[in-house]
Amino acid sequence: MSAAVLAAAPPRPAHRDPQVLRWLGAYTASTVGDSVYYLALSWAAVSSGSPAQAGLVMAASAVPRALLLLFGGVIADRLGPRRVVLASDTARCLMTLGLAAVLLATSPGLWLLAAAALVFGAVDAVFLPAVGALPPRIAARDQLARVQGLRGLAYRMGSVLGAPLGGLAVATGGPASAFGAAGALFALSLPLLCALRLRPLPTEEKGEKGEKADGPVLRDLADGLRHLRGHRVLGPLMITVLLADLGFVGPLNVGLALLAEQRGWGAPGIGWLLAGFGAGAGAASLLLAVRGRLPRAGATLGWTMILGAAAVAALAFAPRLPVAVAVAVAVGLLAGVSGALCHALVQTECDPAYLGRVSAVSSLGSLGLAPLGMPLTGAAAGLWGTGPVFVAGAAVCALSGAFALTVPSLRRAELPR
Is the distance from CB of 146 to CB of 14 less than 8 angstroms? Predict the structure, then answer.
């Protein structure tokens, strides 16, 4: 089928579009594979060294991911997002299957696990921007919000299914079996990605060549940052996203465990809190997937961030576990709505030629910088207690929402009908 026929055909709803469903299946398989891989890595690291050494192995992925993420966006825009996602999942498949084979043959020690974590983080640095740049290539512009809702559901499904699947694999055959299962899941995504038929970019529809792909990488990166800085919606949106990530990631990842321990709720308590958060975030993704858009997207984004900040602060004062779980559901719902709206606005406002680089900047806070600040969050909780950490994080989240509401171009931003 020609590009002209594809462009002229009336768009299908995202949940009925075979293209979107193939992409969603590949993304779900890859996400479940991620969860299984990290569980296998943590179990193998704990079995081979001390808790402190295992922590260093688990943190190793964050360093190359933070350092290389922006350059990964350049690669996604230069080579095309599908090609980069295919190469990334192929590399992860071969690496995890190789780890499984080595673990079956010998006990390599922590050095091999740390090296694998570093490589995995580097691959993530190109995979994540490419995944963010694919939706405009497979769905109509007015369906991109639904695609982000479906992506959120797939991510939650990956988290829910990955942990028990990885645990079953470890219980059955040890870390080698779990690494093998992760490799099989990465392999499952490959034929689905190969079957995608991509929509042409607007510059390609007009017969233009678009950007050159043979110049210096730093020049392409600078071009993407200039595009971002000069955009009336995307520039303020990136500041909003960065502030929200810095205020949200530490308290929710470190603070919940400390809160459960201090209140005597134990490991089941943190499990219930995480389940409540996941349920709320999943409900938010389902809402956007069904509705397709929310009115006054920019203003809704700002207010849900402010309300979500209040819910984060309330977690510190929840007296009993059922109350804390209910608050966690509210946090997940509000954070899910604001996060999905951020992704949808990036997809609809950005020139597709720059989408890999803009997606990289959007992911830098939550996946690159904020995780590196988790030790500071733990240290602050040790000095001043868990409550002040939640309140401080909530204040930063509220600041991000207030900023979004005070910038007219962002406050008035709308998703396409």
Answer: yes
